[in-house]
């Protein structure tokens, strides 16, 4: 039967396939770069195996072996390819010695159930690797954009200088272009940012104020025609954007003409009103959904208690209900804000050039003249979404805490 | 059970209940009082919802309804060539091989007004969607339409120089007194101009056609009235001081060649002051007016039966034509027929949209399932860290992610450069993974993957690990335990995620537009093309309507399976 506590280490022969695979694979990569794939693979696999033999049977000191390996490969890389090579060599040395002892001392079983078969252990780690690859697929594109945005060249790819960590390979010029600080920048980016910053908050304000009121109404137990009304209110989220945009294109141009000719409003103002109305209605479902979800956990006896103590409905709303559902309202607002801030299809259809928003400018930049400034904007937007994500998480925790406090 | 008597004094409510139900504190029956309270609460809930409901109905539902209407709306044909359309009803479309003379005559005058108001090009482009070449036919005809009128005008002026004067024309057609006025004719022409130009408003037009001249010169009076309304309301000029369009002399000569003219004009002249028409009517003007011939000389295509068939088929105010076009068919005299080979692209595009959406959904399932399983089976703290990795792309701007994929997939992009650096592909043999279907599928799988992982994760969280343990302890191996016990319980998550991803992907526009090239685009790109490039808005609306129906059916399914209330964010 299977041993439960394993004292004896694996023999070198037994673990050699893994070491050969690891050494050979990485050797193949490095060898390929120097047009000698097979040679690299052979040298690397052999060195991995022989080093393991030296460490296990001659040195017999794991800590010392670790540092010899790390520093050895670090220096090797430094000689071969400068500072980045040194860093990569150090990391590779660390990995290689780690895998040697990890396989030899059966550390891979440490956190697993002791009765698993070898096949199950192998599957466990293969599965983890698969998941890691999927996570890399999810995150890598977003991470790749960030260093590229500091590219000193107008390329969409890593230059040699960047890979050598040469400071000359990096610059802030795309950020300068975004901010309109370069001589050849035309200020379009900044103007579109302002447009986004005008349109999104106003649209958010409309959707949050109307949406919160409606969510409170919808969460009353005796709301008539609840299903139908909910369906209508969240329909802007259900209908694909291209269809909403098509419908709005016809209707809003008629509306705009009417406002310009019959009321005599300024053309630009009408343009902003159209886009703001459209974005507000697109953000509403998010407010409805988040606020209704918060209200599910809201304890109605609190409002009754307030009424009992003589507060009128408005005081009750602002002093009792609002502070408690505020996290939901804010996160709904954030959703509505990001919907408007990120929206391009509708604004493309119903807006005119003077309402060009940031996503619109990015869309133009991607489709027509490919400008690396997009990458700078993308990096800024990723930072923004990280900030939003953090805020939402904090709000969620606060909401949970508040709910825990109420005697529901 | 008997109630002791003293209860009656202490609890009057219960006491009176024997007679007319329980009473509330204020003395009204409790039932009614409760009903009123319920009504008041319902009203309060409605008042809270009402502002938003009205807002959404106005700014969202109306535009969608408007789009649905536009997909069947075909009033432009009837608005522009009103009389032609009604005359065409008597022609069966094939026999005789060309429409009768009266259709050509109506078209001449309809087209004349349309040209003067610059509406003929709009109609031309509308009909051009159905048959290529009609647009240029209308445009070219528009330029030559007044040639014949100019010739006739010269003849008139040669007869009497007063025909150059607007007043002469006004005196001929204007009613002399109340009894002579023909308000019916005026109203009909007012509507005609209004259909052509849009709402005219309350404009004071100082003209009313005469009933008696309308008997002698029916066509000329009709056209003069239309001209007068147009000139007074749109151009804002004094009718009596302006010479009418060249089409009016044409109509005049036509009327004079009719058999009734001689008697009717004598009647009219007997009651009027002297007018140049008298001299004109005695000169026998033998001007040949064959409108079929005139139009065919202007452009030979007016002798083409297909042009006339197209006009006839598309003359109704409401049409199924756009919907038929949307599914690669077209409306013809023999009912719906299939489009010629070279015009059949939309069905292919619909099929491709569905196919690629299915591939994307499948890719999302394959990539999302392991990740969701891993997160559901890890300790809470680690799972929370991993979920951030899922939520970060979810929260990142769509355009950022699309541009990231453009950076990754380009010929000189990160993936190709890395592969070349590693020596996997030769530098002149780089992978073509953008501007085709692969680009769209990769980028959209990445963009929609969080929408698959999140519902799967929330379902898998609720699956108790003890079921799998129980299966194993009963002798199932890992695979059987997963396939027979765990997987069936996770199917609701797969279903929810799949429908969500599929619905989102069939309506996608931005990502295919940027990374899809020509063969990786979806039906939504075609809609955008018809909105902004070809300007065939009716077809765009029809395509949008079909897509909307598909999505609504899918949502209905989603609602039945998952329940729309279970939509959670983040």
Give a structural overview:
The complex is a heterodimer of chains A (408) and B (570). Chain A is an all-alpha fold and 408 residues long. Chain A folds into 2 domains: 12-115, no CATH class; 186-405, MetI-like (MetI-like fold), CATH 1.10.3720. In chain A, 77% of the residues lie in helices and 0% in strands. Chain A has helices spanning 12-33, 37-59, 62-104, 118-148, 160-163, 173-178, 188-218, 226-238, 241-263, 267-296, 300-308, 313-342, 345-350, 358-367, 373-405. The two termini of chain A are 53 Å apart. The model of chain A has no long low-confidence stretch (mean pLDDT 86). Chain B has 570 residues and is mainly alpha-helical. Chain B folds into 3 domains: 7-62, no CATH class; 77-317, no CATH class; 346-566, MetI-like fold, CATH 1.10.3720.10. Chain B is 68% helix and 1% strand. Chain B has helices spanning 7-10, 12-20, 30-70, 75-80, 82-88, 101-116, 120-128, 134-144, 147-159, 166-173, 183-197, 211-216, 218-235, 247-256, 261-270, 276-282, 291-298, 305-313, 321-326, 346-377, 380-395, 398-409, 414-422, 437-461, 465-473, 478-506, 510-515, 523-532, 537-561, and strands at residues 329-332, 335-338. Chain B has a two-stranded antiparallel sheet with strand order 1-2. In chain B, α21 (380-395) packs antiparallel against α24. Chain B starts with 6 loop residues before the first helix and ends in a 9-residue tail after the last helix. Chains A and B meet through α1, α4, α7, α8 and α9 of A and α3, α20, α21, α22 and α23 of B.
């Amino acid at each position: 039967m299977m041993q439960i506590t394993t004292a004896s280490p694996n023999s070198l022969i037994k673990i050699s396939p893994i070491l050969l695979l690891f050494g050979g694979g990485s050797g193949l990569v490095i060898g390929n770069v120097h047009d000698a794939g097979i040679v690299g693979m052979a040298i690397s696999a052999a060195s991995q195996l022989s080093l393991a033999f030296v460490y296990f049977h001659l040195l017999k000191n794991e800590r010392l072996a670790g540092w010899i390996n790390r520093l050895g490969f670090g220096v090797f890389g430094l000689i071969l390819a400068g500072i980045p090579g040194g860093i990569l060599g150090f990391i590779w040395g660390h990995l290689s010695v780690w895998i040697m002892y990890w396989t030899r001392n059966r550390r891979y079983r440490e956190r697993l159930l002791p009765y698993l078969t070898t096949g199950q252990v192998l599957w466990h780690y293969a599965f983890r690797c698969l998941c890691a690859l999927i996570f890399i697929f999810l995150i890598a594109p977003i991470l790749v954009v960030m260093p590229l945005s500091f590219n000193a060249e107008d390329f969409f790819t890593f230059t040699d200088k960047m890979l050598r960590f040469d400071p000359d390979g990096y610059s802030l010029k795309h950020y300068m272009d975004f901010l309109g600080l370069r001589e050849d920048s035309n200020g379009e980016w900044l103007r579109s940012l302002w447009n986004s910053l005008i349109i999104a908050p106003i649209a958010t304000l409309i959707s949050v104020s109307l949406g919160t009121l409606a969510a409170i109404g919808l969460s009353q137990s005796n709301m008539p025609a609840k299903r139908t009304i909910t369906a209508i209110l969240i329909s802007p989220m259900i209908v694909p954007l291209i269809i909403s945009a098509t419908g709005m294109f016809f209707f809003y141009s008629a509306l705009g003409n009417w406002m310009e000719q019959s009321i005599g409003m300024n053309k630009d103002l009408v343009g902003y009103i159209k886009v703001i109305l459209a974005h507000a209605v697109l953000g509403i479902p998010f407010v409805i959904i988040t606020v209704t979800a918060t209200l599910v956990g809201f304890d109605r006896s609190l409002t009754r208690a307030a009424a009992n103590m003589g507060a009128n409905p408005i005081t009750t709303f602002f002093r009792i209900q609002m502070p408690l559902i505020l996290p939901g309202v804010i996160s709904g607002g954030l959703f509505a804000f990001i919907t408007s801030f990120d929206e391009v299809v509708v604004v493309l259809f119903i807006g005119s050039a003077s309402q060009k928003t940031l996503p619109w400018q990015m869309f133009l930049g991607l489709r027509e003249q490919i400008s690396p400034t997009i990458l700078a904007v993308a990096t800024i937007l990723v930072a923004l979404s990280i900030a939003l994500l953090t805020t939402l998480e904090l709000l969620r925790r606060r909401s949970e805490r508040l709910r825990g406090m109420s005697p529901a | 059970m008997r109630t002791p008597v003293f209860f009656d004094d202490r609890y009057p409510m219960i006491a009176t209940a024997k007679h007319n139900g329980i009473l509330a504190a204020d003395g009204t029956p409790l039932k009614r009082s409760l009903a009123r309270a319920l009504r008041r609460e319902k009203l309060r809930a409605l008042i809270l919802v009402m502002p938003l409901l009205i807002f959404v109905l106005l700014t969202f539902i109306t535009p969608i309804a408007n789009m649905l209407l536009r997909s069947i709306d075909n009033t432009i044909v009837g608005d522009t060539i009103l009389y032609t359309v009604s005359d065409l009803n008597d022609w069966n479309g094939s026999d005789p091989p060309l429409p009768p003379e009266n259709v050509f005559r109506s078209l001449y005058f309809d087209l004349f007004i349309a040209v003067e108001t610059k509406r003929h090009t709009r109609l031309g482009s509308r009909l051009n969607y159905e048959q290529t070449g009609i647009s240029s036919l209308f445009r070219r005809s528009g330029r030559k339409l007044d040639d014949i009128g100019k010739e006739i005008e010269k003849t008139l002026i040669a007869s009497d120089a007063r025909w150059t004067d607007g007043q002469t024309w006004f005196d001929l057609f204007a009613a002399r007194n109340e009894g002579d006025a023909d308000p019916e004719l005026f109203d009909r022409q007012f509507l005609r101009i209004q259909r052509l130009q849009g709402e005219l408003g309350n404009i004071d037009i100082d003209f009313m056609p005469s009933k008696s001249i309308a008997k002698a010169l029916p066509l000329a009076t009709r056209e003069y009235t239309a001209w007068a309304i147009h000139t007074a309301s749109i151009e804002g000029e004094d009718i009596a001081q302006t010479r009418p369009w060249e089409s009016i002399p044409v109509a005049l000569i036509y009327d004079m060649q009719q058999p009734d003219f001689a008697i009717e004009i004598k009647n009219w002249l007997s009651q009027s002051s002297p007018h140049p028409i008298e001299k004109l009517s005695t000169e026998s003007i033998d001007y040949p007016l064959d409108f079929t011939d005139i139009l065919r000389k202007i452009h030979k295509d007016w002798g083409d039966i297909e042009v006339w068939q197209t006009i006839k088929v598309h003359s109704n105010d409401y049409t199924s034509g756009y919907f038929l076009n949307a599914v690669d068919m077209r409306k013809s005299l023999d009912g719906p027929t299939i489009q010629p080979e070279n015009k059949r692209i939309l069905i292919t595009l619909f099929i491709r949209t569905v196919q690629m959406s299915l591939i994307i959904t499948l890719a999302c399932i394959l990539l999302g399932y392991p990740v969701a399983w891993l997160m559901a089976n890890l300790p809470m703290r680690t799972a929370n860290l991993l979920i951030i990795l899922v939520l970060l792309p979810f929260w990142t701007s769509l355009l950022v992610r699309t541009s990231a994929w453009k950076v990754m997939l380009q010929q000189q992009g990160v993936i190709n450069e890395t592969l070349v650096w590693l020596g996997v592909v030769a530098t002149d043999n780089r992978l073509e993974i953008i501007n085709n279907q692969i680009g769209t599928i990769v980028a959209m799988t990445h963009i929609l993957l969080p929408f698959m992982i999140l519902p799967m994760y929330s379902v898998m969280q609720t699956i108790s690990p003890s079921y799998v343990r129980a299966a194993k302890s009963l002798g199932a191996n890992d695979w059987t335990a997963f396939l027979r016990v765990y997987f069936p319980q996770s199917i609701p998550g797969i279903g929810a995620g799949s429908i969500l991803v599929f619905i989102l992907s069939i309506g996608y526009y931005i990502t295919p537009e940027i990374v899809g090239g020509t063969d990786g685009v979806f039906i939504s790109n075609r809609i955008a093309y018809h909105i902004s490039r070809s300007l065939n808005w009716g077809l765009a609306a029809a395509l949008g309507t079909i897509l909307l129906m598909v999505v609504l059916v899918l949502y209905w399914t989603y609602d039945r399976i998952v329940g729309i209330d279970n939509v959670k964010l983040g």
